């Protein structure tokens, strides 16, 4: 491995300019890849359905009539234990699928893993639709969440292996687009059903519509190519080259893509001779990579995404907001718009400024919302609603979308699925803890903090902001061979943006020789 001093003095003769910015022409030339990414990310639409469903259904009068209990001031609430049981179903499914994804996808490939996830997800949704008890709903959620959890854990890894470097951030941010799209669509379905149906059918319809993304993906999955990186690892280079052509079209420079991918995989195979895969996630440069990914995803939990994103509508009802389902519908539409705003920014400004700047701004926003909540007036409540909607927009513009780029592009090629699976498991465990505590914090028959809960999340977000400011590197525009070299060389986070790699220069020389002999 070249010394840091040597590589920093080299001229950049590599394949990619990591400071270049995507243009509309890049979008048009890579439209095929973008469509494949959106298709691969169909199961994360179900993740968006799920994270919205509990908070939204809890606010439906029809669901409250079936499973709620009488509370203060003549209102009905879902018991804390029932909320915890439902939240636990989501957590168990995501947690177990996170670890299962690595084993299954490494064994049978990315495509077959996605197909299996679709079958399991559909089964779980059907169990939920026919439920007559909280426990049966819990069982269906656990099954369905495990199914779409396979796609949620695998999708970013799959896309990271095929996305062009220049648009990799945008391609990976599309998973959050589908998640937020699922949140918005579910809030629309729940709002419509709540307004036009009476009885249990009002909350059963939102549950059964969750089969649609899984069915669409399952029907088209036989024509979905396998991951080129997985095929290279399995020593099937011809199949990998064919997969690259299918993903990118006949004009794609397959030789350069294969050369870059093989260089990264070869370097990892050499290192893997002295290490154990799962233990290596916590050692050396791979340990640094794991910590970066985990901290970025935990920052989503610390900043309060489960409150603003999941329990927002339920809080609106408890706080006395008029027509909370409609306000919640508007809030999710604004969040979807925020995610769309992030797409042209992630590969133009980079990951670090968007995430760090967004976290600091949102932390200040939590303080503002908390201070306003100290006033019990109607005007204060209206201001809280407005600031929460704006906060949700900002979240989706920044860490809500960009975290997926960091999560998928940071791990080394051989450990990518294992690293991402561990990250999802840890994030899910923390999310579970937050969701188990949340009912105690906001229910009117418990702590009844309301928007004052923002003070809690502000305290959690401060150390996360400090870590991201000092330790999050900029990886925009870097191919995996470059990232491998920089992490192995121990390049400080602040130097990632300007660091000139040896491997990129060597690949550039090989490309020039290939073109000269062609």
Automatic annotation (TrEMBL):
<dbReference type="Pfam" id="PF00083">
    <property type="entry name" value="Sugar_tr"/>
</dbReference>
<dbReference type="InterPro" id="IPR036259">
    <property type="entry name" value="MFS_trans_sf"/>
</dbReference>
<feature type="transmembrane region" description="Helical">
    <location>
        <begin position="353"/>
        <end position="374"/>
    </location>
</feature>
<feature type="transmembrane region" description="Helical">
    <location>
        <begin position="380"/>
        <end position="408"/>
    </location>
</feature>
<keyword id="KW-1133">Transmembrane helix</keyword>
<feature type="transmembrane region" description="Helical">
    <location>
        <begin position="291"/>
        <end position="314"/>
    </location>
</feature>
<feature type="transmembrane region" description="Helical">
    <location>
        <begin position="85"/>
        <end position="104"/>
    </location>
</feature>
<feature type="transmembrane region" description="Helical">
    <location>
        <begin position="203"/>
        <end position="224"/>
    </location>
</feature>
<protein>
    <submittedName>
        <fullName>General substrate transporter</fullName>
    </submittedName>
</protein>
<dbReference type="GO" id="GO:0005351">
    <property type="term" value="F:carbohydrate:proton symporter activity"/>
</dbReference>
<feature type="transmembrane region" description="Helical">
    <location>
        <begin position="420"/>
        <end position="443"/>
    </location>
</feature>
<comment type="similarity">
    <text>Belongs to the major facilitator superfamily. Sugar transporter (TC 2.A.1.1) family.</text>
</comment>
<dbReference type="GO" id="GO:0016020">
    <property type="term" value="C:membrane"/>
</dbReference>
<feature type="transmembrane region" description="Helical">
    <location>
        <begin position="170"/>
        <end position="191"/>
    </location>
</feature>
<feature type="transmembrane region" description="Helical">
    <location>
        <begin position="449"/>
        <end position="470"/>
    </location>
</feature>
<feature type="transmembrane region" description="Helical">
    <location>
        <begin position="143"/>
        <end position="163"/>
    </location>
</feature>
<dbReference type="InterPro" id="IPR020846">
    <property type="entry name" value="MFS_dom"/>
</dbReference>
<keyword id="KW-0812">Transmembrane</keyword>
<feature type="transmembrane region" description="Helical">
    <location>
        <begin position="326"/>
        <end position="346"/>
    </location>
</feature>
<feature type="domain" description="Major facilitator superfamily (MFS) profile">
    <location>
        <begin position="36"/>
        <end position="476"/>
    </location>
</feature>
<feature type="transmembrane region" description="Helical">
    <location>
        <begin position="33"/>
        <end position="51"/>
    </location>
</feature>
<dbReference type="InterPro" id="IPR005828">
    <property type="entry name" value="MFS_sugar_transport-like"/>
</dbReference>
<dbReference type="InterPro" id="IPR005829">
    <property type="entry name" value="Sugar_transporter_CS"/>
</dbReference>
<dbReference type="InterPro" id="IPR050360">
    <property type="entry name" value="MFS_Sugar_Transporters"/>
</dbReference>
<keyword id="KW-0472">Membrane</keyword>
<feature type="transmembrane region" description="Helical">
    <location>
        <begin position="116"/>
        <end position="137"/>
    </location>
</feature>
């Amino acid at each position: 491995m070249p010394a840091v001093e040597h590589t920093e003095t080299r001229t950049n003769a590599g394949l990619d300019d990591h400071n270049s910015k995507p243009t509309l022409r890049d979008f048009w030339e890579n439209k095929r890849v973008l469509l494949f990414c959106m298709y691969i990310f169909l199961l994360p639409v179900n993740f968006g359905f799920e994270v919205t469903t509990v908070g939204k259904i809890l606010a439906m009068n029809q669901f409250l009539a079936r499973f709620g209990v009488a509370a203060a001031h003549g209102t009905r609430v879902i018991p804390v234990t029932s909320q915890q049981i439902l939240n636990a179903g989501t957590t168990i499914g995501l947690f177990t699928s996170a670890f299962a994804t690595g084993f299954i996808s490494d064994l049978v490939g990315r495509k077959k893993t996605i197909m299996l996830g679709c079958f399991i997800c559909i089964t779980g949704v059907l169990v939920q639709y026919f439920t007559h008890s909280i426990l049966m709903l819990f069982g269906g959620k656990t099954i369905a969440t495990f199914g779409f959890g396979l796609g949620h854990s695998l999708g970013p890894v799959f896309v990271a292996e095929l996305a062009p470097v220049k648009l990799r951030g945008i391609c990976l941010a599309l998973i959050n687009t589908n998640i937020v799209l699922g949140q918005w669509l579910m809030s629309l379905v729940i709002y419509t059903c709540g307004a036009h149906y009476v009885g249990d059918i009002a909350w059963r319809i939102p549950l059964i519509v969750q089969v649609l993304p899984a069915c669409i993906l399952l029907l088209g999955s036989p024509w979905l190519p396998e991951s080129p990186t997985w095929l290279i690892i399995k020593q099937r280079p011809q199949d990998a080259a064919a997969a690259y052509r299918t993903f990118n079209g006949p004009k794609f420079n397959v030789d350069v893509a294969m050369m870059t991918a093989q260089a990264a995989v070869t370097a990892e195979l050499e290192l893997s001779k002295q290490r154990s895969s799962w233990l290596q996630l916590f050692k050396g440069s791979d340990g640094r990579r794991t910590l970066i990914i985990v901290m970025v995803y935990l920052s989503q939990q610390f900043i309060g995404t489960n409150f603003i994103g999941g329990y927002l509508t339920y809080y609106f009802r408890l706080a006395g907001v008029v027509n909370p389902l409609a306000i919640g519908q508007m809030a999710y539409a604004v969040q979807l718009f925020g995610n769309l705003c992030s797409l042209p920014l992630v590969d133009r400004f980079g990951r670090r400024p968007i995430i760090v700047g967004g976290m600091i701004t949102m932390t200040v926003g939590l303080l503002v919302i908390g201070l306003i909540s100290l006033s019990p007036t109607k005007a204060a409540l209206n201001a809280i609603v407005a600031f929460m909607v704006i906060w949700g927009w900002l979240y989706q513009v920044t860490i809500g979308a960009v975290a997926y780029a960091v999560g998928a592009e940071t791990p080394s090629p051989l450990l990518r699925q294992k690293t991402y699976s561990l990250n999802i498991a840890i994030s899910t465990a923390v999310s579970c803890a937050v969701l188990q505590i949340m009912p105690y914090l906001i229910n009117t028959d418990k702590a009844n903090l309301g928007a004052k809960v923002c003070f809690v999340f502000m305290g959690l977000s401060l150390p996360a902001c400090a870590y991201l400011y000092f330790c999050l590197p900029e990886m925009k525009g870097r191919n995996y061979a470059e990232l491998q070299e920089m992490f192995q060389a121990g390049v400080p986070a602040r130097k990632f943006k300007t660091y000139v790699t040896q491997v990129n220069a060597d690949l550039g020389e090989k490309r020039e020789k290939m073109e000269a002999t062609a």
